[in-house]
Amino acid sequence: MSLESTVAELMTPIPYTIGRDATLEEAAEKMRAHGIRHLPVLHGGKLVGIVSDRDLGLIGSLNDVDPTKVSVEEAMSNPWTVPYTAQLSDVVREMTEHKYGSVLVVDEKKNLVGIFTTHDALEALSELLEAARLAAS
Length: 137
Description:
Strand order of the largest sheet: 1-7-6-5
Structural class: alpha/beta
Number of domains: 1
């Protein structure tokens, strides 16, 4: 990794996804099973949104919401997407400025190819700090 790295170099490729008609309960179970906090939402193979564990918690805390009956579509938000060629520094800057927990990475045809999360950003920071430490010694 270098200061010129692209988001594609550090993203999680082919992330777990969920359909927009799935229930909140199904989304929560998928997140638990895979130890993840963000699920891109697809419909007909196309990216239509994203749902996070935070979204599920917020919607699930409402008294009249049954997570076995409410669909992911009702809890999802519009995703922030970037091309896989986006500079990592630009992506991290935007994530920090807007407090995004993740960004969805797409190809030229807007097909989902990966996800870049704050966890991935911290791994990149760790690598850069380790490289700087080694260079200084």
